[in-house]
Amino acid sequence: MIYPSVVSFALGIAFEEIFGLGWSAGVLVFVVSLVLFVFSFRSQGQPLRIVSEGLPLNISRLFLIIGLAFCLGTLRMAVVDISPDSNLLEHVGQKISFEAVVSEEADIRDASTRYIVSVNLNSLSGDSLECLARLDGASTRKNSAEFYPCITEDLPNKNSNSLILLVADRFPELEYGDKISVSGKLELPKNFLSESGTEFDYISYLSKDKIHFIIYRPELYPTSSSSTELRGARKIVATLYLLKKIFIEKISAVVPEPNSSLLGGLIFGVKQSLGAELLDDFRKVGLIHIVVLSGYNITIIAIGIFYLTSFLGKRNLSFILSAIFIILFSIMVGLGATVIRASIMALIAILARFLGRPSDALRFLFIAGFLMLLWNPLLLFYDPSFQLSFMATFGLILFSPFVFSKLNFVPEKFGLREIVSATIAVQFFVLPLLIRMSGFVSIVSFIANPLVLPLVPWAMAFGALTGALGILPFVGQIVSWPVGVLSYFISQIIIGVTEFGANLPFAILQTGSISFWFILVWYLGYGVLYRKLKERKFS
């Protein structure tokens, strides 16, 4: 019953997002399903003859589960609050100053760095704004020599329920947990046209993470370091980010750019120095998923962790350490939608093996999707990474076996047939979403992926080993150099294939965007196709 439950839960979220009728509609659906269940079921477990044959018991239960899941979906979406903080909203367009804490890892670009910060409202001041602390009855003091017109050392933090995105200069460099003073013009995010010519809902994309405001090129003044302020879980997160930074620095010390950035992208999802042109080449050849830390990369890492811990000889300890390492790694790389989905599936698979239960990838996928939507239902509409990750894995599970059986002419050596079949299945299944998001179809992806994907595990392994050896004191750079050379050559092959494929005249086919309803019909067609393939297989 897991599949209809999750689908009904998602439909409840979609219904509430589209029509906005509140919890009443979900409750009504549940009441109808409950009535159908009651009138089709007796204490003896036999259907009542309310119609000529009545409803079979399993169908009556299905009605009840679907109604309950749909109701929970509408209720979950109805309680979502994405409204901006009114304390900040009334000062849009003004230059304001405030104290803040860097709440996520910095996103470093070629010409800028993006920080997401949590605002202390008690420190807020602006051109026509008095200290908000006065609203709480607290005394204030004017001091024009200070950065702010009021002093709030004796006031408790009153954090805004909205986050602010700072698009800042590359320097000064800030870390997760740093306390900073910020000054700049507060603005609202705006939607923009994507490459496919459709409007990208940037406002909702940010709002799903409670980011409601933007400040471009703010003045930043660090006031305290994360190393001295953070405690508990946040200290662990900061330590993991620091470890990742050290790893990347050690790789960069041996491997030149852009290869070191490619290795950082393969292992940690960091792509800061690849450059816009090379990133665009990866998109054209359908290989961008390896750079942004897709489920494929996470799967490789999870398998590697489990393989290494298996040498301990104790089965239970191996399972526990594998789960801990996967969780810590997920935190280290930023907990994006793709990472969370792949990590949940990996953790469920580890738990299944621990309990001696058979693995069911499709069931694991639906459980992961349900947990993610339960945590943040806005992912369903406004997170392209979640949509692509879920649908790519769904298509891989459903169609890859059928494609594999038809590729007898492709050798199985080095897992080539499996890679080719997986590439075709995934590209085929996410094609409608890719067309809507990008406005083009990558023709060469069916060639580039089989050539590059077998190299990815080796590039990740040698890149990680380069960083690990580089941490060794005194001799780190010397002993990591031979491994770094290998990782450089492997990454150079990946870059070479990417650039060659992207420069081919037939690399992409421009299609323009397609509507949501066209995509819906397209996927209904996929459903009919899957049913026919399954019937043919068992006939």
Which descriptors would you attach to this protein?
single chain, alpha+beta, OB fold (Dihydrolipoamide Acetyltransferase, E2P), 3 domains, 7-stranded mixed beta sheet, two-stranded antiparallel sheet, 11 strands, 12% strand, globular, ComEC_N, cell membrane, Competence_DNA_uptake
The strand count comes to 11
The fraction of residues assigned to DSSP E strands is 5-15%
Number of domains: 3
**Multimeric organization:** single chain
Class from secondary-structure proportions: alpha+beta
Inertia-based shape: globular
Count, helices: 21
Radius of gyration: 26 Å
**Integer average pLDDT:** 83
Low-confidence stretches: 47-53, 128-155
Folded structure, characterized:
- With 539 residues, the protein is an alpha+beta fold.
- The protein folds into three domains: 1-78; 84-128 and 146-228, OB fold (Dihydrolipoamide Acetyltransferase, E2P), CATH 2.40.50; 235-536, no CATH class.
- The chain contains 21 helices and eleven strands.
- The protein has helices spanning 2-19, 23-39, 57-78, 86-89, 202-207, 226-229, 232-254, 259-268, 276-284, 288-291, 295-309, 315-332, 337-355, 361-375, 379-382, 384-406, 416-438, 445-452, 456-470, 476-502, 516-538, and strands at 95-102, 107-108, 113-126, 159-168, 179-185, 192-193, 199-200, 211-216, 219-224, 440-442, 508-510.
- The strands form three sheets. Strands 1, 2, 3, 4, 5, 8 and 9 form a seven-stranded mixed sheet that branches. It has a two-stranded antiparallel sheet with strand order 6-7.
- A hairpin with a 5-residue loop joins strand 6 and strand 7.
- It is globular and about 70 Å long.
- The two termini are 25 Å apart.
- Residues 47-53 and 128-155 have low confidence and may be disordered.
- InterPro entries: ComEC_N, Competence_DNA_uptake, DUF4131.
- Residues 266-530 form the ComEC/Rec2-related protein domain.
- It comes from Candidatus Zambryskibacteria bacterium RIFCSPLOWO2_01_FULL_35_19.
- The chain crosses the membrane at residues 18-39, 59-79, 287-307, 319-352, 364-382, 388-407, 419-449, 455-476, 483-502, 508-529.
- It is found in: Cell membrane.
